[in-house]
């Protein structure tokens, strides 16, 4: 088990932190769920976009399938494949679980390396909506199973921020009037438009638009995001998560 120690990021608006929006589709709604899809997009919505389906080692629970439309099925050749009943097709590019997670880690190393080549003290901060409630613990657990430890993530300067906490503060202060802070409601509230939710890439892009491309973007500072950002170890400690 990994020992988790509390370590939040110091506030420094001059530090060259870079922000990326993260979303997962999972086999369940709890911390022990496995991953079906990872989506990441940069805060400018253009310079980096990464998405990958993976074959989870456990069945997709009915409640999760009802949300994301994903399920494991056996095809005509007897192979287990990931199927999307929402799209009406088999996800042919889904990678084996460990291979897909290690590919994601390589992507993290690449973007984090770019961050630290510009500013050796800077962090690559992954922002997820309700990340502390699902995505961060699920991701850290999955990476740990593939040999990617908290220490490895911290060595390259990866940190996490939960946008739900930020938007709750904004609503309490009167900077946001949305009644519900679900991503679908927020997006409709700010843009008067729906989006194809519960696809990891679509959700990450929707979060990018809400935080960095909407009418509330000017009220969100770098310090606001830094103030919510935590190291992987800090996430584990806050959630009492053992890996």
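^ structure tokens above, recovered residues below v
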């Amino acid at each position: 088990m990994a020992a988790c120690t509390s370590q939040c990021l110091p506030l420094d608006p001059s530090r060259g932190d870079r922000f990326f929006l993260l979303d997962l589709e999972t086999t369940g709604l709890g911390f022990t769920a496995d991953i079906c899809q990872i989506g990441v997009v940069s805060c400018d919505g253009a310079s980096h976009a990464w998405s990958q389906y993976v074959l989870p080692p456990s069945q997709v629970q009915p409640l999760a399938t009802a949300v994301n439309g994903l399920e494991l099925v056996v095809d005509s050749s007897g192979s287990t494949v990931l199927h999307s009943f929402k799209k009406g097709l088999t996800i042919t590019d889904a990678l084996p679980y460990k291979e897909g997670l290690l590919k994601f880690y390589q992507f993290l190393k690449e973007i984090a390396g770019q961050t630290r080549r510009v500013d050796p003290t800077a962090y690559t901060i992954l922002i997820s909506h309700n990340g502390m409630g699902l995505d961060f613990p699920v991701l850290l657990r999955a990476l740990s199973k593939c040999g990617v430890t908290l220490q490895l993530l911290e060595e390259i300067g990866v940190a996490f921020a939960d946008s739900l906490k930020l938007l709750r503060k904004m609503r309490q202060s009167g900077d946001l009037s949305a009644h519900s802070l679900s991503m679908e409601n927020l997006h409709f509230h700010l843009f008067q438009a729906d989006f194809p939710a519960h696809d990891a890439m679509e959700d990450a892009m929707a979060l990018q638009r809400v935080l960095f491309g909407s009418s509330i973007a000017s009220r969100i500072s770098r310090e606001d995001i830094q103030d919510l950002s935590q190291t992987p170890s800090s996430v584990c400690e806050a959630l009492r998560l053992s890996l």
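The mean pLDDT is 93.
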